[in-house]
Amino acid sequence: MTEEVGKNINTKKASGQVPAEPAPVTNFIRNIVDEDLAAGKNDGRIMTRFPPEPNGYLHIGHAKSICLNFGLASDYNGLCNLRFDDTNPTKEEVEYVESIKEDVKWLGFDWGKRLYYASDYFDRLYDYAVQLIKKGKAYICSLSAEEIRKLRGTLTEPGKESPDRSRSIEENLDIFERMRKGEFKDGTHVLRAKIDMSSPNLNMRDPVIYRILHADHHRTGGKWCVYPLYDFAHGLSDSIEGVTHSICTLEFEDHRPLYDWLLNELEIFHPQQIEFARLNLNYTVMSKRKLLELVEEGLVSGWDDPRIPTISGLRRRGYTPEAIRTFCERIGVAKSNSVVDMALLEYCIREDLNRRAPRVMGVLHPLKVVIDNYPEGMVEEFDAVNNPEDPSTGTRKVPFSRVLYIEQDDFREDPPKKFFRLSLGSEVRLKSAYYIACVNIVKDEKTGEVTELHCTYDPNTRGGFSTDGRMVKGTLHWVSDAHSVEAEVRLYDRLFTKANPADDKDGHDFKEFINQASLEVLRSCRIEPSVAGALPGSIYQFERTGYFCVDRDSSANAIVFNRTVTLRDSWAKIESAQKK
Ligand code: ATP
Ligand code: MG
Questions:
Q1: What SS3 class is residue 89?
Q2: Which of 241, 266, 325, 427 sits at 20 to 30 Å (Cα–Cα) from 378?
């Protein structure tokens, strides 16, 4: 089923009315690009790439990288490639490749015909490795992984050379060829770049660039049993594609000397690696490995659980591509790591949906209201404004009858000061309908809980306006018992109780901080009939409660909503201010 914003809104038209996203703010990467263009570098050509490893679903951090890479290319009339960095056959799956393509498209970016895979370059990468051997710049090392690690040294101590470092070029070529042919078991030999075992940079101490791995690859099948390591494959793939600016996250800063060394030794086209600070968000985790743990251990319902920051989770929750792009623009691009507050992401989606989501009335915790003086069997239809922010969306009919529901919270038996909602003897407006006054309360004899209100309506307040100038302070949302549809509504809270669950000082596992109350399911909500038949992905504002998105678990006779985000609840603020 297709995604759409509210079934009764013309999405195209609506998006046309959204003011343009903020003009790109300049940043240090743009400055570098500007300088390169001014200097005539690469004949004025700009090419970037987004290089995911297909070992999980994309998250909001990847969105930052996608917006940056595709955004730069489009702003500078350049191109951006989508390249799967698929050099690790044991962790990669076709499912991830497909989900990544879908998410990049959904975010609004287009790689055109430039969909590439590092695995497409395996032959060329192998040839490059042979060239390095021939140049005396790479050698076969037959130490175990453990021995290699020990000889590598530390930040304060230089490493020691492998006894195999002086192997002849002929012998290196011979063993490498036999590795490829499958003559050796996993781990018996590796190919290492011959750089400098006493370099202060550990990445330059003869890094491993090829390993033996008898594993089928999701694209090349059983063709290879030697695979290049990430650092080797990445820069060379950039070069093969003609990428001009290879933008990556800060952890790769220490890898740049190796990136440059390989390109220089091979004397091939030399892209420029530029590092920026990755996005971190509080109250969540963002590494694919951790997200995979949550999924595999059933702690969330899947990669698209609306509580996790995957693109598919955010989409299911009701986030729009526009809001995510605006968020990425607002957080900017910096050179030092920081943590962004989840509240900023929520601000961006509220701002977008406020402009675009049609309003409806939905009661999450229904309290029955009987209008004693309203004729039994009578039904009136009131015109309600679809979106006050967008008059072109017009109005819809909302049916009114004798038995209604309002929100339990909108009634208080003992109203505190400044409680302008309903209480015994008080009068409020039912939005777009009538003024009503509460005349009587029915309670459950055992629990004392209020189960039903009896009210009277004033026929002279049709549409919610009095003819005698009488004012009421409270306006409540409501639905008609006979006409509303029953819905399940899923309310989400932060998935973690700790701002930074992945970085606990006492070494606790991040999963120990899962918020047990992060999902609350309400099963007997009542929503006005205009939402009947809405497709999954349709997003509404429920007046006064928040934004809600139809979930894919909905069926023809049972509609399920995910709460995307609350509106700021003004009463909760007043009440907590009063308590202080
Ligand atoms: P993770 O650490 O979440 O597993 P990753 O870096 O291993 O992510 P890749 O598939 O290698 O995931 O990432 C693809 C691109 O997205 C890389 O260029 C990487 O730098 C970028 N990226 C990943 N996480 C973030 C983030 N949090 N903020 C910005 N860019 C990111
Ligand atoms: Mg990675």
A1: coil
A2: 427
From the CA atom positions of the chain, what is the Rg in Å? 31
Asked if 382 and 397 count as a contact pair (C-beta separation under 8 A), the reply is yes
Q: What is the pLDDT along the chain (580 residues), one digit of tens a residue?
A: 444 455 443 333 333 344 455 556 789 999 999 999 999 999 999 999 999 999 999 999 999 999 999 999 999 999 999 999 999 999 888 999 999 999 999 999 999 999 999 999 999 999 999 999 999 999 999 999 999 999 999 999 999 999 999 999 999 999 999 999 999 999 999 999 999 999 999 999 999 999 999 999 999 999 999 999 999 999 999 999 999 999 999 999 999 999 999 999 999 999 999 999 999 999 999 999 999 999 999 999 999 999 999 999 999 999 999 999 999 999 999 999 889 999 999 999 999 999 999 999 999 999 999 999 999 999 999 999 999 999 999 999 999 999 999 999 999 999 999 999 999 999 999 999 999 999 999 999 999 999 999 999 999 999 999 999 999 999 999 999 999 999 999 999 999 999 999 988 888 999 999 999 999 999 999 999 999 999 999 999 999 999 999 999 999 889 999 999 999 855 555 566 666 5
Angstrom CA distances, 507 to 202, 284, 473, 510, 511, stand at: 26, 17, 53, 9, 12
Superfamily of domain 357-483: Ribosomal Protein L25; Chain P (2.40.240.10)
Could you tell me the distance, in angstroms and rounded to a whole number, from the CA of residue 51 to the centre of ligand 1? 9
| Catalytic status, residue 288 | yes
- Is 359 a known active-site residue? no
Pocket lining for ligand 1, CB < 6 angstroms: 51-53, 61-62, 64-65, 248-249, 278-279, 286-289
* pTM for this prediction: 0.92
Q: Is 13 assigned a catalytic role?
A: no
When the candidates are 3.40.50.10190, 3.30.420.10, 3.40.50.620, 3.10.20.600, the CATH number that belongs to 13-117+233-279+318-352 is 3.40.50.620
Q: Residue 312: enclosing H or E segment and its boundaries?
A: helix 311-317
Which helix (H) or strand (E) segment holds residue 427: the answer is strand 427-430
Which ligand 1 atom minimizes the distance to the CA of 51?
14
